[in-house]
Specification:
By secondary structure, this protein is an alpha+beta fold. It has eleven helices and ten strands. It folds into two domains: 85 residues; 233 residues, BirA Bifunctional Protein, domain 2. The longest helix is centred in the N-terminal third of the chain and has 38 residues. The N and C termini lie far apart (86 Å).
Length: 340
Amino acid sequence: MNEKINNLMQEVETLAVQTKEQVEEYRIKWLSKKGEVSALFEDFKSAPSDIKKELGQKLNELKIKAQDKINHLKEKFESAEGATANAADLSLPGFPTLQNGSRHPLTLVKKQIIDIFSRIGFTVSDGKEIEDDWHNFSALNTPENHPARDMQDTFYVNVNPEMVLRTQTSSVQVHIMEYQKPPIRTISPGRVYRNEAISARAHCQFHQVEGLYIDEKVSFADLKQTLLYFAKEMFGNDTKIRLRPSYFPFTEPSAEMDISCTICKGKGCNVCKYTGWVEILGCGMVDPQVLINCKIDENKFKGFAFGMGIERIAMLKYEIKDLRLFFENDVRFLKQFTSA
């Protein structure tokens, strides 16, 4: 019996198997109810009493080693199976490439405009899109019979005819002038609304950036230099500007500003209608009556104001010919600005 125990002990210690099934076969051979270890325990019952203690110790040691060997081999094969299951299956189709999103072109241009004016001391002011008549029209020196008040241009709020969807972000500047003492240097970007037919060059909603500077001894020359700086920063150092006389109720004198065409570089093309110039904004010196309306001393302070459409700037910058593309959320269009 002692020899059988030693032989089985050696078999356990030197056991090497290739598959998980072989491990199970040896478990049955050694540790099942009819296995070799169980048979040795049956023989142990009839062994001489003087050697029972030694045989019992060896049998227990054999049983423990056999169980440990089986458990070790099981864990080895189970770990190998887990690693295989977690490994990449090279036969599967590849994962689709995740495409980076991008900011909307109007957001890109708006941010660039804000950055340019921030570098010369302009702060950013925001305001509400539903505005009262005073801040949207009257305070800006717009007479009651002015065409801008007509239903063809303005969206009035039905519940209150004195409230409108703002037609310009100049209304934000009125709030600033009412509650802030000069010097004032601010721009007001935001969405505005006008009752216009939607086409490639017009929309019922669009975005503006209006600028205002009020201080002592402000002149038209300050306005011109500010806008020249903006044009060169936005469209390139070779950009030229020209100012043409115009009319706005809240500025006097008033002007329209053109830049040399960014497409043909002033030579003439269909974008600039072969003139070499493209209009981008309106501007002028703040009318003294506007200062009076906002309780600012018109004898001490002067100011200039300007306003531009963000869509207009974006169309020139990115050579976009249809205004409606900005609002249709066409992914094919938006993808063009992924790296912008």
